[in-house]
Amino acid sequence: MNLVNHHYALMAGTCLPASPSPLPSPVPSLTPILTGTYGELMTAVDTLIPIPERAAHRSVKGLIDPDSIVVIGASARRSAVVAEAISGRTKSFLVHPSGESILGEDLYTSVKDLPEKPDCAFMLVGHEPILELMREALEFGIRAFVIPGLGAEAGANGAETFAQVLELADQYEAAILGPNCMGMAVPQGGSMWVANVPKSFRRGHVSVIAQSGSIADAMLNCGPRVGFRAVFSTGSEGNRDAADLLMGLAEDDQTKAIGLFVETVRRPEAFADGLRACAEAGKPVVCMKVGRSRIAAQAALAHTGAMVGSSIAFTNFVQHHGGIEVSDTSTFMEALEILGQPKWPSGIRMGAISESGGECGMLADAAEPTGLEFPPMPYELVGSLQERFPNFLNPQNPLDAWMIDEAEIVFPESLELMAHSGEFDILLAQVDITQYRGDTENEWCLAIVRGLAQATKDRRIFPAVTTVHVTDPPRRIANFAASNGVALLRGTRASVEALAAISMWHPFTSKDLDPHEGIDLSDLLVPGALSEHISAEIMERYGIPMADRRIAEGPEEAVKAAQELGFPVVVKMNGPAHKASLGGVALGLNSAEEVSVATQAFGGSVLVAQEIAAGPEVICGMVRDPNFGPVVAVGIGGRYAEALSLTASSLAPITHDQAVRLVRKAPGIAKLTTEETFDAIVYTVLVLSRIAVDHPSIIEADINPLILAKNGAVAVDALVVCEQFIEPESV
Description:
- With 731 residues, the chain is α/β, with parallel strands linked by helices.
- 32% of the residues lie in helices and 20% in strands.
- It folds into 4 domains: 3-39 and 615-722, 2-Layer Sandwich (D-amino Acid Aminotransferase, Chain A, domain 1); 68-295, NAD(P)-binding Rossmann-like Domain (Rossmann fold, 3-Layer(aba) Sandwich); 343-503, Rossmann fold (3-Layer(aba) Sandwich); 550-610, ATP-grasp fold, A domain (Dna Ligase, domain 1, 2-Layer Sandwich), CATH 3.30.1490.
- The strands form 6 sheets. The chain has a 7-stranded mixed sheet with strand order 9-8-11-10-12-13-14, with helices on both faces.
- The chain is flat.
- The two termini are 31 Å apart.
- Residues 1-55, 293-301, 303-307, 510-515 and 725-731 have low confidence and may be disordered.
């Protein structure tokens, strides 16, 4: 039963489906649910660093792939940095007031003396002369600058100089990378980078944006395992930030994938635009954020607010806009290794072979929570493996090849047979390739890598090796893998998580969704946490079935309400939040006397509600993150929902299909539901998404629990929290 075409009627404590007629007024159709753009839905954003809001899309022309550069402040003291800047294919000029030569190159005493206008200026100068030199460069026509200085070394006057530099750049609409950054590095010379650029920094198609200078520098020192198009260290992000670079790299033909290391999202809307632009261009963005605990967050009254913090909001934010979010540097690096290959995983079906049964178990355990699948070996493949290697008594996936035959024989030939079967999207060899193995073992390790390369050549199968060790492989094997499109991954868990994340990524496609008509709540919304009675009224106006209820003042009214509803009933304190944990709920009351006693115990106003027959309980909620917008969540409900926190979440607004996927992803819910109750949960999640879109003043909303019955569901408790301003009358 699809809830788009059904509504619920509450009868004798059970939620039953009504006839398949359209949803009653004022409940609008469930799909689609989005109106306007994401930017229109965002509430006021309290960014962590007070940087003036500028245009959403700011040009980074000159910072990405400049045709010519000038090093201002070139000197013998920084000869290694200067040598790297002038050694690439980019035309370069050197400026220093001394006019002396350096590295055999003539120096111009001033930018004004240059024979042509460079695209970008690399400012190797201190904070005292930088303003005069920048003004001179701007007047000459330069509109892009890499400024590594103006950090802590600038002293007490650094902040003032920083502000003056930004003001000057804004006057000329010039772009700045930095200040206080490492610069921009490209393989094979031409880098504007203030540290050593190692020879192992090789060319490829992965670009990296890092707010941390040390993380950016670590990219340059990861050896041959990743081929880079460029690495950008953004530093203090004076007037160009990660969002601007994302937009620029979305249009860069040489960039096929992006790694993003974030400490602060300064402009969430522009950041979302950059993520979407990259995804629409078919360029995955792997994002890692640190410092999540520093994000300002309000105290949560609803269960959902406690379970969905800002870190989860950020995860949903990235995924909602087409990015890939990872939680640690290990998975981040493995993801870049995968994306640096000429082809990427095209599906979630993984075939694996390992040196031991224990490692097979490790692979299976690591893959289970990720969504990757180990499909069983097809009958024909089992027969082929047993025919070639009779010692394979019962070949299964993952395949334990220990003591079956010589590794340099069994691994490559088994991989070829597995590839030929057409049953797998990924072929993975779990082999401990490390520089500390002997020459003999390294030879058969190389044979395995060669076997993977050969088996997957001209096939849509992604080849990878993962190891228990995280040490560097022998250079010979690393170079062969890099040249033949085999990913050498490190660490079982990180490798599998990275494979899963990229396997499930797909290019983002925006969809036009029909508008829906909002429901007027202006008579109900007031600042703060609303009572359960009012919260339930809001849910009912949006078509959520709620347990019938009455407000009663004192025992006499409570008894009358109970008699009207029919026993058994529930009596609750007439407060907004966490009544059960405070002892403010009396269940299973079957007489007037019991109702009277409970009402007297709670004192004053109480809520008397019909008691719904026990059944599986689900929590559905929404919380509005101050930085990233509304998040909807669903999970196992009841009084222990917050402690268990078994939820799946997504940034709102969501479509019907997204709601279906969200409910399926929630731990344990699939085992609790029938087709009808599953649809009821999907409906509830969609409603909460619509409420978030229609009413920006609602910052939290809970339905806990939603009790699942045989043919549907009914909510028995609700909580809505409004921000400290009253919503306008028009919705």
